[in-house]
Every structure is written in structure tokens, then in C-alpha cells.
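Hi R.,

Quick one: here's the Metalloendopeptidase sequence you asked about.
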Amino acid sequence: MIGGVQQVSIGQGCDYPAIVGHETGHALGFYHEQARFDRDSYVRILTQNIQSGLESQFTKQSQNSMVTFGVPYDYGSVMHYDPYSFSRNNQPTIQTNDLNYQDTIGQRIELSFNDIKKINFAYCNSTCSSTLPCQNGGYTDPKTCNSCRCPSGLTGTYCDTPIQYQSSNCGTLNLNATTTSKTLTQSGYGYCNFIIQAPVGQRVAISVDSIRFNAFTPCESSYVEIKYGWDIGNTGARFCSTVRTRSVTSATNIVLVLYRNLGSGSFSISYSAVTGSSGGGQTTQPPQTTTTRPWWTTTTPCWPWCRNETDSNTETSPIATPPNTEAPTIPSTTETIPTEIPSITRASPIEVPVITDVSPIVPTYTESTLSSPIALIPSTEISPVDEHLESFDKKMTEAQIEGYKMILGIADDFQNSLSNVIEEKRSLLLKRINDLVTKNGIKEQKESTEVFQNKSL
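And here's the predicted structure, written out as C-alpha cells:
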């Protein structure tokens, strides 16, 4: 932003961190993800299902009107609409070309890794005098310049090691793919990160044999995420409902599998090393960025789940293109798209008021970040346990919060009902004692009545 303060309008029902992050993304200059000039390689806009008069919400931008900073299309971006945004007939308005990603788009839990990466590239790209050889989609941390910021599930100096979470049932995290098919299964509560690696020059073939989670879509809390595209830093294909067998082949020799389960559920996949081209997945080479002057969006429509309303326009200013925005050179490949459309379970949005008596676990921030665009990014000085707890807290969905509220409501109702029953029984006992006293005139019982009246059940 240049020249003053940018206004962010948050309407009723939109007061959640990820939605605030979405609107702040507009204020920082970012379009909706499905408005990217290269979106046709990743999604189809089903205009026949869009509410009349709202077609402009799906307008595609031209290549010279935006800059991607070399970051590929992100299905898990907080800036991406969900499949049913502005639907007039409860049918999808957006369909992913690779149908494995259909339940990934539209999450509103947190900014994705690549969302934050783009913000840093836009505003902090010249902070460090040199860059580190970060792997797997990681990039040099602009706050320290001596470490890498790593995608979800990875850690290490150069983002080459799976994070060891506290879950005791994860088992072996580093898996080697060979020509012999192997099986990876997981069930029950857990946060596990698996890296499957084939020999150099080969790829990883994956068969999704079984997925069973009792979760809503888009997948936000309990799911298995398989990253098999060119950029492992990008959000992978998330599965959180029962699906038929799917088969994909990775774009590289590495696949990252993230298991996130807050309750019951399980998954089973088979994997092996193969030769040849990739099949399925987000395998299109990220576009080279040639834009020299980005012009940011001039409107910030409210997220469609917030009553399907739009905010009033908010004007922004163009910013200069940061240096080093070219995308890395990546071998070209072809994209194979599944032809079978899976059944889609739509989660009805739930408007939940903020629960003020519950203290959430929040990331740590340093004072210097409070006036900077990267105040959205937590301090890197986080212990593994804190990181686990932070991730656990972020993955709470609206449905789960609503579930907790329902439990609290039931508890209140039970307490009220119990109080009524106790008062009823107390009154009945008092009446019986009084009847006995009146009938028999027994002094001891009268004294008992007086004592009883002063006691509480």
C-alpha cells in the first residue's frame, strides 16, 4: 500500500481470523485466487450456476494486471472461493480440473503457506542480501535471513525433514518408494507427516484405496492431504469424505502426505516407484511472471458465506514490482485430468458468534512485526510442542466450534433441568415433613424441617 491507511470492512458473520485474513489480502493487493489469469489451467467456472448479476465475482484478470511472484495457483489459498460460492441452484459454480482438489478449495481456517509466501515476496523480498537453498517450496525467512520458512509438515535448515509431532501412532515418517507396491495406513487421532521418495529420475505412483472421515467439505480439520505436484509448498489434494479409488502419479520423485485427524477416521494408500510422465495432479508448470507493474484490485467483495453479500468498494494503490519475482525454471509436463466427477458433500455454512470465555492458543508475535505486513506471520521461535498446539487450534472448524457450543448448551439445559428437579423434590419433601409435623406435632421433626429449609441440595 502507498499513501495512507487501507480500510478493511468486516461484516456480520465474517469476524473470523481467516476471513479477516482474506479481506486483508485484498487490502494488501491480492485478487481472488480463481481470478488469476492462468486459472483456466486449474478450474472451470460454471457460469450457468452463478446468481444473476454476480458473474463479475468470477472475472478473470489479464496477465498484465497482476503479478504472481512465481508462486503457482493455490487450491488451498484463503483467497479462493469455495465450490458453491454465489450459486443460484445449490450446484457448484467452480469445479477443479483435477477433481482430487474439489474438496480443497474454499478453506477458511488460515492463510496458506503460499498466501504468506506471496505477501513476503511482495513486501519483504529485498530484506535479505542473499537467499538460502531452501527445498520443497521453502524460502528464505525475511525476518532472520539465516533460516528457511518451510511448508506445513516440514522442518530442518532447508525444509528437508518431516516435523515430528507428538502423535505416538505415526510410525516411520520417511518412506522409500520402490518398484514393489507398499501400503501406508493410519487411523484415529493424529498429526503425522510422511515423505515418500522414489529414486532420482523416477516418480511416485499412488493409489488412494480408502478414505474415511466424518468431516464436512471443504476439508479443514480432519483429512489426509497428498502433495504430488511440482511445488510441495503448495496445498495438496485433501480428502475428508469416503471416496472411490483414485490413482495419481507425482510430478517429481517426492510426495508429501499430511494426516490431520481430530477424531475418528482413517486412510489407506498404496505407493510404488515408476518411470515415465506424471499423471493427474497439479502438474502444470507454474507460469513465468513478466509483469512489471501490478495494479491491485479495487473491490473487496465479502466472502460469499457471509450472507452472500458484498462489501462496499475499497480503493487501493498500485505498488512497485519487487525484485526477484521470476518463477523457477521447471521442466514442462502435461496435465492429466480425471474424467469421473465424484460426489460432492456440501457443508452448510454455520454462523457462530465468538466465544469469549475460551482462550485460544495463538502464535507468538514479536513487537517489531505489529506494524509490518508480515505481522500475519508468527515468530519462528516456536517449540515443536507449541507448533503442534498452534496447528491443532487452527484446524478447529466452525462445525466443531458449533459442536462445543451445542455441548455447552446441553450442559446448561441439563443443569437447569436438574435444578428444577431438585427444587421439585425439595418442595415435595418439605411438604411431606410439614404434613407429618402438622399431623403428629412432633417437635423433633419440626426442628428437622427448619434445618432442612436452610440447607441446599
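Confidence is low (pLDDT under 50) at residues 280-386, 444-449.

Cheers,
M.
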